[in-house]
Amino acid sequence: MLSFFKNRSKKNVICSPCNGKVVPVTEVPDPTFSEKIIGDGMAVIPSDGMIYAPADGEITAVFDTLHAFAMTTVNGAEILIHVGLETVSLKGEPFTSHISVGDKVKKGDLMMEVDLDKIKESGMNTITPVLVANTADYSEIKLIRNGEVLHGDQVLELS
User: Fold this and answer.
1) Which end of the chain is flanked by fewer CB atoms within 10 Å, N or C?
2) Residue 56 falls within a domain, yes or no?
3) For the chain, what is the largest distance between any 2 Cα atoms, rounded to a whole number of angstroms?
4) Per the residue annotation, which of 67, 82, 98, 151 is the catalytic one?
5) Which domain holds residue 109?
6) pTM above 0.85?
């Protein structure tokens, strides 16, 4: 019952974690993401390799291969950020993480640097899904902005 009030107490907004072009998650060329198997959300085609916190919260997972991480926002949204497609196979090479499990982050904190050229040279797509893993906790996950964005721009509204 408390989570019901928590999600209603103020606007629950997720911002873009990077500069680039926001697209609907349904446009990600991987069915795991486009069919919303892991969760609903959006994706960013990054224009640079800097990944920032999309909201205030706590880091709950950092994959060993550094290609993905999860966080829980202060408003209770469980966010998964997956940098590129099939990038797990790069075994962490193009990624420099600045976060660890348990870290508290503020919106806009630098969390990761990524060498996008290395990902592209490996023949992989740099599109970066940003998913709400606890989608069932919300009646609506709405893309409120698409197209070109800067990190920190509001892109998803959860209600």
Assistant:
1) N
2) yes
3) 49
4) 82
5) 2-150
6) yes
